[in-house]
Amino acid sequence: MKPIVNIEGLTKTYGKRRGISGITFAIEEGEVFGFIGPNGAGKSTTIRTLLNIIFPTSGSASIFGKDVVTQSLDIRRQIGYLPSEVFYYDDMKVVDLLRFAAAFHRCRNEKRIADLAGRLDLDLNRKIEDLSFGNRKKVGIAQALLHEPKLLILDEPTGGLDPLMQNTFFELLKEERAKGTTIFFSSHILSEVQRMCDRVAIIKDGSLIKVESVENLMRNNLRHITLTARQPDEIDLSAIAGIVRRERIGTTHLKLLYDGDMKAFVQGIAGCPFTDILIEEPSLDEIFLHYYTN
Amino acid sequence: MLFRREFKRNLRGLIIWSIIIAGIIFLYLGIFPSMAKQQQDMDNLMNAVPEGMQKAFGMDRLSLGTLLGFYGIEIHLMTTLLGSIYAALLASGIVAKEQNEKTAEFLLALPVSRPTIIVHKWLAAMANVLLFNAVIVAASFAGFQLAHGEDLSYKAFFLLELAVLMMHLTFAGIAFLFSAVARRTRSIVSMSLGTVFIMYFLSVAAGLSDRLSWLKYVTPFKYADSAQIITERSFHPLYAGIMAIAIAGCFLASYWYYNKKDIAV
């Protein structure tokens, strides 16, 4: 099966300023694919290149098997895009804007507009300029979903939405997904990626660090280990390789982040004077931080 | 779709500028009859103006006492200068606004090609300038009636207005090109206005000094020189050609560049 999105060696430099370099990954059909990195890592640059808002310096990318530069118009017919910051024509009413966008997609569907507005609790007759940031975002969501695209590209979609609205949003995404829509989802908030995505690409300083299934990321060897001891500072762990971080919590707890063979750790720790041990799976945030700081 | 949107968005500006220019034309043509009665005084007044100034404003060849002469000296200055300012503001805004207000990202993510965008925006700019000039012509005609029209050469008047229209289109084209090419668009409006004013002063300079007369080939204000068009009843084909090429060139350059431009948001 051909991937929906295929990015190969995609590079974008702005003069001397770094954009992204040599990004390569592919998104399969029907997948919810996360794109994670801190602010300024190059997420939006990658997405804008896919939409041909900016041109790649080198490398290439294709969506639906079509080149993002030469066949961009064809591609954009089947894409719904939610930018991280939503800016619309201020003088338009919400409903006019949605119709304006729908007209380009040749999909005039008043029922769908009313439907989405109802779900998102959006007043269609207000002017864009009177809307708060969160409400603009909701217009953006409605606009991206309106024409039932084959691929949704969402750039930091939850920013500005209250938790209740985030739930609605994720429900909407689930429904789209059930229809077979592929979703490409950038974020710096890992819990929401963890919640939605099948696989994630981690990007840092413009380079791709890793593409991994969320399941695998959670399953790798990285563990949180909390030791309880009377004198935690006296525990000698120098013989154990793979301790990423060590910090004392309170007077009796020693918290470790460990990346390595569990058996070796247990054998190494066996002689130490601890009273309790707690081994936990780290959150994706911590896993990410691990990749990010290394 | 896009054309309609651009047209609607700029309609208010068009109406306001049309009212202003029509008002000015009526006002000037309204006072013409009383001025014409005191033609002797007027001619004396004009002769009191230094010769260089007379040349710069075409007063050496046009008479304030005739309707068309009056039009060529007083009103022509308004239609050319104000009209060019309007054309420059309009055309630079039509592309630059999209980037300033960051709506370009939304527009470019829609299934609409860049050539379509740039062509529609160009057509919207040109349509506005055309309508604005139609208002100038209509208001002038009405004003001529108001001024108890003596016989005037309509040929000269139409040639003059044709030159004015082309000049506005030229400034619109230049401003459009600026905003299509610029990466950061904040200063585009002032740049476009600056171009209009510099061109205006060059035209004054070209009239003031013989040594600078070559400047008449540089500035569109000299291409639409009322004194020459009214007295000779001809619009120099060279000037018409230069403007036509400038307008087409600006469009082609905008079109070409916009198609390969990174849109910074």
Describe the structure.
With 294 residues, chain A is of the alpha/beta class. Chain A folds into 2 domains: 5-213, P-loop containing nucleotide triphosphate hydrolases (Rossmann fold, 3-Layer(aba) Sandwich); 220-293, 2-Layer Sandwich (Alpha-Beta Plaits), CATH 3.30.70. Helix content of chain A is 32%, strand content 30%. Chain A has 10 helices and 14 strands. Chain A has helices at 43-50, 72-76, 94-104, 110-120, 133-145, 163-178, 190-196, 214-219, 262-269, 284-293, and strands spanning 5-14, 17-27, 32-36, 58-63, 66-67, 79-82, 151-155, 182-187, 199-204, 207-213, 222-228, 243-249, 253-259, 276-280. In chain A, the strands form 3 sheets. In chain A, strands 6-7-8-3-9-10 form a 6-stranded mixed sheet, with helices on both faces. A 4-stranded antiparallel sheet of chain A has the order 2-1-4-5. A 4-stranded antiparallel sheet of chain A has the order 12-13-11-14, with no helix packed on it. In chain A, a hairpin with a 2-residue loop joins β1 (5-14) and β2 (17-27). In chain A, α4 (110-120) runs antiparallel to α5 (133-145). By secondary structure, chain B is mainly α. Chain B has one domain (2-258). Helices cover 78% and strands 0% of the residues of chain B. Chain B contains 11 helices and no strands. Chain B has helices at 2-37, 39-48, 51-56, 67-100, 104-109, 114-146, 154-181, 188-208, 220-223, 226-232, 237-258. The model of chain B has no long low-confidence stretch (mean pLDDT 87). Chain A binds chain B through residues 14, 48, 51-55, 72-73, 76-77, 79, 81, 83, 85-91, 100-101, 103-105, and chain B through 1, 5, 9, 101-106, 108-113, 260, 262-265.
